[in-house]
Task: structure prediction
Amino acid sequence: MGTRNAGADKVAERTERAAAMQATIATQVETMAESDGWRAFLDYIGAFHSYSLNNTLLIMSQRPTATEVAGFRKWQELGRQVRKGEKAIRIFGFSSKKVTETDPATGDETETRIPRFPILSVFAKDQTDPIEGAEPTATPDGIATRLAGDDPTGIYHRVEQVITDQGWTVTREQIPGESNGYTTTDGSHRIVVDADVEPAQAAKTLIHEAAHSLLHAADGIDRAEMHRGTVEVEAESVAYVLAGLLGLDTTTYSIGYITGWAEGNAELVTATAARVLGCVHTLADALDQLDEETAAA
Result:
């Protein structure tokens, strides 16, 4: 009886702590959105085109690691050169063609525009290199700083076991560019974490990708209506809260990342609370069960 009550108390305490941590995210986003670092970030992303939902889905299906995306000449304007042999990401453009129509009865002419959707080629930042001698594009510092240090409680390997038990494969591979990891959405059930990040960052990234696997990439989920910003806010909020419950403070990375994808909108963070906390508890319960099985073995 005592053990059962202790377990219930542990879950209740975790629930309270998780809710409190999630609630602080919105406040921290508001603070970040008033900072000089955020203004520098807005200047930086202002150089890039904002893509429609359909094009965002196309980009992510072809190159999951893509962050900043631009055309060949735009990258040159930004002081970077697309590497020879890189495969373009295909998206839909938009233009219109003016057509003159004549009314056969009156002879009156009217002009209309017919929409056209040409196929365009764009490239991700990790497909480019700095052009020697060109003035580099200003990038904001401090918006999201990768974590350094160890993973002393073995968060990475514990989460890895939980998520592989659910049918996913997890690998460490070198990922070009700035992406720390990605989750496939093509049914292959793969999670990849960058091989070069430090253990603390790898642990946080794996929680982020595990959240994607549960919330956004599981079989049967309709991703057509998902907004990329909301998806990333949810996954990183799960990483921030669950990592915090497990003793890893990810503030220096997570808050800037969430602020960027939420576009400084703290209300979006609040709106995702229920889904975030549901995913946190799903993973936390699985980790508790894993720890109990390990202790009993």
Observations:
- The mean pLDDT is 89.
- Residues 2-47+139-296 form one domain.
- The chain has two domains: 2-47+139-296, 77-130.
- The radius of gyration is 23 Å.
